[in-house]
Records
---
Amino acid sequence: DAKTTQPPSMDCAEGRAANLPCNHSTISGNEYVYWYRQIHSQGPQYIIHGLKNNETNEMASLIITEDRKSSTLILPHATLRDTAVYYCIVLPNSSWGKLQFGAGTQVVVTP
Amino acid sequence: KAGVTQTPRYLIKTRGQQVTLSCSPISGHRSVSWYQQTPGQGLQFLFEYFSETQRNKGNFPGRFSGRQFSNSRSEMNVSTLELGDSALYLCASSLVSGSSYNEQFFGPGTRLTVL
């Protein structure tokens, strides 16, 4: 599975958009980009995933560059409840349930 | 629809003992994965079960084992507990279909403390 690089931490003001970058320069053609987050003392939560097209759901948007070497998770209007560790994971669709979590990005949303 | 449930939520054991943790997946989900989370190592994959078969396994010693029942419920067992096994053990279930293959739903975890 391709490795990912994320900044260790970032701050965001409540109500503003949070843009979380992820580098995955060794991504293969059949690998998807997944984003999960973990709020303190809870299990991780799936956010969104994509292959090469931009994706949007009720939680976030995922922008993947054309060469697929990097992506950005966008939380459009950050709230205090979005304070969490965000994980970018790259893996093939049929990974037999194995998610490889890195260190992630600690996002702190401030009032 | 009820989420993933794990029992017990907290557990205290002593070195050398064994422990069994239980996980009930979301109804209809047939894949169950287990993870260990520690401050030093982060979230690490233990193993995954589908239709009562272990399909994938992480890099953990043989003291860590698991099984899945016909109703998709899963248990994991750790024998001869060591201090380093103190961790949050997370279970996740997934539907296993199409492009949502890796959309896993996590339970709240079992906090294991080994004294």
---
Amino acid sequence: DTAVSQTPKYLVTQMGNDKSIKCEQNLGHDTMYWYKQDSKKFLKIMFSYNNKELIINETVPNRFSPKSPDKAHLNLHINSLELGDSAVYFCASSRIRGNYGYTFGSGTRLTVV
Amino acid sequence: AQSVTQPDIHITVSEGASLELRCNYSYGATPYLFWYVQSPGQGLQLLLKYFSGDTLVQGIKGFEAEFKRSQSSFNLRKPSVHWSDAAEYFCAVYSGGGADGLTFGKGTHLIIQP
């Protein structure tokens, strides 16, 4: 069983479209996160959710919105996609706020053309 | 705010040789420190973590890291590398305070020469 699963693995779309990336964890963790990895491999946190409450939101455009229907899911919605949104997006989860380490999904490579 | 510096962007090591990847952090208190590995096209896998106690931490795949408070460092080591160790390695810090989430270094790309 995959602990943190993301779908789709690859996503190619045109500028201006709206897309979603899904994430599910079966670890019973309390907190889930979205990270963006740019072309230089730099990882930056975008969002985290703890018990359905958004507890961090870095300098992310409001075109990005996380949606958590329950503790096991944290989906990422992106509106009006731009070329600069092309990156690999990683979902992760942790037992408590990250100090026990994260479990990462395998990533979604988003390409905006 | 906390930060993590990995001074080496690329490192090339011969198979069977020893390895040390450097990591320096900036944080006022004792941080929680992590090393992750990312193989090509894969997600991140936790190698080891340090919270407190023994400053020499053992991880998976034969890796270890040593926390040195005086040098604000958490270097990753392996006595003998294998070709399968070729990957991107990330050091990360969690402050445990108001700012949540891990702060990652920019990564070190490890190349293994035959």
